[in-house]
Amino acid sequence: MRTALEELDARRRRAEPTAGATLAAAFVDVLTSTLEQLPAAVRTTVPVILAAADYSVETTSAYVSRCAEAEAGGRRLRPSEAMSPEPAQLLQHLAEPGTWRGPGYVLISPGTAAEQAVRWARAAVTTGLHPAVVVSQVVRDAGQAAFRVAAVPVTPQPAAPPPRAPTDAVVISGTGLVTAFGAGTDAFWRALLDGRRALGELTRFDASRFRSRTVCQVPGDGPGAAGGPVRRAFADRAGTEALRDAGMTRLPARTLLVAAGVVPHLPQVADAPRIDEIALEPNWAGGGFGVPAGAVSDAAVVAHACASGAFGLAMAREWLLSGLAEVAVVTGVSALNPYDYACLDVLRATTTDVARPFDEHRSGVTIGEGAGAIVLERADRAAARGHPPRATLDAVACRVAGQGISRLNAHISADCVRTVLTSAGVTSVDHVHGHAPGTRQGDEAELSALDGIGAEHGWREVSVSSHKGATGHLLHASAFPAVVTAVRALRHGTVPGTPGLRAPLAARHVRVLRTPEPCPGIRSVLVNNFGFGGNNAALLLTGRTGAPDGRLEWSTHG
């Protein structure tokens, strides 16, 4: 019997080449026929893992070339030139009819994405995390200017023993962060509680042709250590802190590194200015993300726009629960660069003022930069080595909505929250850290979704806040300051306010905070993380709480 990877390769070789203009339609056709091979009760919610490294390279290279041409011609991008198609938009097309509403994940790991997708799917099915998984691939046809699309369902083997359900929790053992407040989670947390805002003028590149030149820039200028890219310097600082916080001097042999949102190496445009601030180095094998070179057995790259961090945490959690890894390090980094900036500028997502999340008078995003790293392991492993976890990652829900490229789908984001609450066995949380970048449509849709969930479960003024008015929007690395905020709130019994907020949006069941508040006995924090291309995710973190006799207990829901 052929393995799933061999079957995927066979189907890819048989598939007809697909022209770029019809790729989305071909993808939907192939995936729909593959889903129909599954039982009706499974096919609507089955996870789909898409390996799309070739597609990501081509579309990102084309976007970078358009930016370079616009720069050379002294003009701004046109809206039609702006969006570099996220691979997840293929999943968005699949979700559009509403017949599939399962989680979708995009891997763009150079050279290994398909193999990682198949191993993940097989392990998740074997351990009972999912009754089935569909693995798909979009790969460049070697002889034609086209892609091939293939997909294969992964289901339990007929002669295999019954799946073994996961028996332990996944915990956060360490965190690291670099923001415009400098290096370190302590610096970020103190500034956030003080209500400070790290706003300043963009100096990393010429921004004279853009609508906004106010950013949240990491202190210092120029390249990183030894003349390397700024991105690498940020990531190394965050990763070093996270490993130290996790009490690790070395990583075990079976370590998964997940890089969130960084694009593969782009050889077609290697001479483009500042390309090293968005692309991986040639022959990348996990280096430059704050972990020792060669220390990881699997280096994966996930691509879900500004929700990449949460999707990366979901992947890492499943690899740990299914036994594919002993430790996982999830990293993300965003350095100010003209390519991300040009896209958000022409889409008018940036503000000409400053970001004011959840404010009646919000007008858009202030872009920031920085990096984050999160070390995950199973609770039993942390206990065996005597390391106290920083929080428990109780549940993660990831969905790709089938509506709009840049609009937040309130219905799908609410569904993510419902799924997280159900998975954790709870109906309420003590605090919500919102995605809330300060956009007109996104902030209102998110708050509406939260208020709707609150109405369903009888929430009474659950507090909500966002950090993005302080350090800006870190784009595909935006989940990391949010997770650090949740971890610190659980640890200190204090929830932060929303820097920059002056006139909070009204809601009935949740309450947007302007300033920090004590929250004694806090046990749970919901974190939202959304992105362009229909990417939606929600996470539930739980942590320490004061016991009646004054001891510290570890609290998990579910």
Description of the structure:
The protein is an alpha/beta fold and 558 residues long. It has 16 helices and 22 strands. It has helices spanning 4-14, 23-35, 40-43, 53-72, 79-82, 88-95, 113-126, 185-194, 230-245, 308-321, 338-346, 379-384, 410-424, 440-457, 468-471, 479-492; strands at residues 48-51, 104-107, 133-140, 147-154, 170-179, 182-183, 200-201, 214-215, 255-260, 298-302, 327-334, 370-378, 391-400, 431-433, 462-465, 494-495, 510-512, 517-518, 524-531, 535-542, 544-546, 552-554. The longest helix has 20 residues, at 53-72.
Q: In which range does the helix fraction lie?
A: 25-40%
Mean pLDDT equals 89
**Class from helix and strand fractions:** alpha/beta
The beta-strand count equals 22
Radius of gyration: 22 Å
Structural shape: globular
Largest sheet: 12 strands, mixed
Question: What is the end-to-end distance?
Answer: 39 Å
Q: What's the helix count?
A: 16
Strand content: 15-25%
- Which residues sit in consecutive blocks of at least 5 with pLDDT less than 50? 545-552, 554-558
